[in-house]
Amino acid sequence: MIGTKMHPPHLRAALIERARLLRLLGQAAEGKLTIVSSPAGFGKSTLLAQWAQSVEGGRVAWLSIDRLDNDLARFLKYLAGTLHRVDPEIAENAGSLIDSSPVTPVDSLLTSIINDLSRAAEPIFLVLDDAHLIVSQEIAAFLNALVAYAPPAFHVVLATRGDLPIELAGMKMKGQVVSLGDGDLRFSLEESEDYLLNVCGLDLAIPAIVSLHRKTEGWPAGLQLAALALAHEASPEAFIAEFSGSQRDVATFLAHDVLARQRPEIQEFLLRTSVLDRFCLGLSRALCPDIDCAAALETVERSNLFLIALDNSGQWFRYHHLFGEFLRNKLDARAAGDRARLHAAAASWLAAHDHVSDAVGHALMAGDTDFAARLVETCAMPLIMQGHIPRLTEWLNQLPEELVSGRPRLLLARVWAQFHMSRPRQAVRILKQAKDLIERLAADDRLGPAVARSLKAELRTLTAGVISASDRSRSATRAAARWLPDFPEDEPFARGTLANIAAFSHYSLGELDASRLLSLKARDYHSMSGSVFGVVYSDLLLGLVDIAAGDLCGAHEHLDRACRLARERLGQGSYAEAMSAIFLVELAYEWNDLQGAERILHQHRQLIEECGLVVHEMACKLHLARLAAARGRHDDALIHLEAAERLGIEKRYRRLTASALNERVRMLLALGDVRAARLALRSRGIEVSPGALSGPIHPMEENLRIGAARLLIAEDRPKEAVALLERVAARMRSDGRMRGFMQVRALVAVAARRAGEPLLALAAAVDTVTLAQQQQAVRSLVDEGAPMLQVLDFARTRIPAWSGTSETAVFVETLFRAFGRCGIDRSLGGALFPRPGRDLLSRKEMEVATLLMCACTNRQLAETLAMAPDTVKWHLKNIFGKLGVANRTEAVLRLREIGIDPAPMPPPPRHATTPPERVG
Hints:
Blueprint: H1 19-25, E1 33-37, H2 44-54, E2 59-64, H3 72-86, H4 94-100, H5 106-118, E3 124-129, H6 137-148, E4 154-160, H7 169-173, E5 177-180, H8 182-185, H9 189-199, H10 206-216, H11 220-230, H12 236-242, H13 247-260, H14 264-273, H15 281-287, H16 293-302, E6 307-309, E7 317-319, H17 321-332, H18 336-352, H19 356-365, H20 369-385, H21 389-397, H22 401-405, H23 408-420, H24 424-443, H25 449-469, H26 473-483, H27 492-508, H28 512-529, H29 532-549, H30 552-570, H31 575-590, H32 594-611, H33 614-630, H34 634-650, H35 654-670, H36 674-683, H37 702-714, H38 718-735, H39 738-754, H40 758-775, H41 779-782, H42 786-796, H43 807-821, H44 837-840, H45 843-852, H46 858-865, H47 869-883, H48 888-897
Parallel strand pairs: 1-4, 1-5, 2-3, 3-4
Antiparallel strand pairs: 6-7
């Protein structure tokens, strides 16, 4: 980051004190937004720099915008940086968060900045200079949100030449905008006199000053240009008399005249350095090796030739935009090669001094595509290895498509970006393009053995990654098994990434031993390569394997280690930390620490939803659903689960879709909605009918079978459920997936007791509690609700080890207390969240329901309750939906189950002469 962009321009000692405008700017604290708008040359930056020095009781954060800042990640990084400069408590970790996230985390940054600003001890003013250069709609949306949600002590000041991306109408109506236009910024006659006589030191008569002021209409840049010309005029009055024209004419005339009056070496210095957005003495020497640049720079600065200092030390400068544009236009009149050579020299110097981003732009302007490509290629892999995808994307976007398509490393860099953002279909297209190019170049001997070997290793790694991201885990493991043994030893990052991809694929298939071994190997490779992101991801995979194996404490150690490493090496709040922390939520939830789970989840939720791989985003949605249900927000929980299913379907991830569906079926059944659970399964092609579930069970579809077994239990077909669950449990036990085995055995215990098989129920209950105790797992059992509680109560009186003071007995008592805190009573039926009838139904629905239990017809209901027939039908539909029934008979039985008493038998229908009053 260029520090001078985040400081106001350096002010010269000789300046007009524009007290009138400073008073107007002093009103900035009265509104959310201040706009200083005028054409070029009206002194906006100078005025705001003066105002920034005069602010009392507040702090000013400054950001000078240039055209490169239309990249969202770059803009947000600078914005956060300048706010952090004035208050270290603001946006402390924004830079590391942006660099380490595959997709720019806009909402996370907005929330963080707004919250930090809300805690600021004194007012903060953010000045965006040259805001008109912002054309990005994404940045415009961010600025709109920033202004809309700004706390009272935060104010935004925009300096602009034209239209702004901010939506102003609403704020203007509320009186929240302070505006200064070109009419305000024009010099008054007194200010023109002060400027020409005292600042410029010209010896002019008052009539001449009045004439020049009138002709320039108080345009500060026009007066400045005129003053520069007048300093060399023998007859100032004659010059002023001939001086005329519009602002454009004035700029063109005076710029030519000013430039023409400079010594040839100064003219040459000005023209050559005009290609630079900002420059220092060293950079100017690279472009002007035949000129005494130190003397030229001193002359330009002393002559006030539109040179603006960017720092207090006088190291970096830029030209006034109007003057710089004029110089570049004049330079264009030369041979095309002259400007290209200047850009090439700038690119070379900038690259050598680590200003790579600026160097890429100059290399492209020079037409040196090879150099531009090498610059990006040099930095691409180090960025990927640390997970800094946004910065890489910024550079790739500066390269023309034809340049990228002809460079295999640039194409592969794009695949890395697509892979990290869970876009396998887009990645496949670019991957094929890269593969064809590599094969063609290799066949023509244009790569060299070492480069070809490296590219092919990277290509294979990405191929396996795209296959895995497409939910083809078995194909990914086979590809990795073929390629890993022959991988070049000098490619530890690609080798480590391929091992991680294979490890995740084995994990998806339930093959934990293979996954653990490959994750450990991958961690070693990434340690050798220095890839923090790779090491963190290896630890994440080891944590997931331990969760599946039922070693929750071991999982916590791995995940916590990953988070700590990410914080230490990449900064707090990075994407690497978030993707590990999201699985710590699962552990906290399982251990019944709901508050801790919610704290971790909401700390990282936005970043995961914006940037995360699909497996992380799915985990986030499942956590949201479980926590919402645990807090009694069942409708919210179902909404989250439906969103999770849609995500799984969109990304074509069968295992994750099945996991979300199983959760939704469990929750619907817990609410007593058997019909909705059946429809949910049917919508995904699962028919719970005899023989329909007898085929082989793929690991990706285990959760579909578990969901089907839940429905079988609810529909009083427990023996079928036991048979189905035992098949799933056998596979899990053979794989060593003991957490899933525990959860399935819990359902077997429920189904066996419902089927009248007490010995099987006891055996399953013992397995469940033994494994749960080893993991200190609580929520897996509590979430199964009253049926699970009944099984535990049944078993406790028959298993001696569950009584007394043994560790098992203490754990069982912990479970009973957890059930109690959730309000689950062993006397309840199958619903986990049964609600009293009077809470379930509205008052009017209760009136209809009590009469329904008396076998009243719709006409009798309408007569008795003075309702229209259509209103009666509407209430009956709502009642059936809430009870989860399909007809009157089922409704009456369900109403009796939940303790609703019938109303007294209504009198016979009366034949009214007027229709009943329409209600509802």
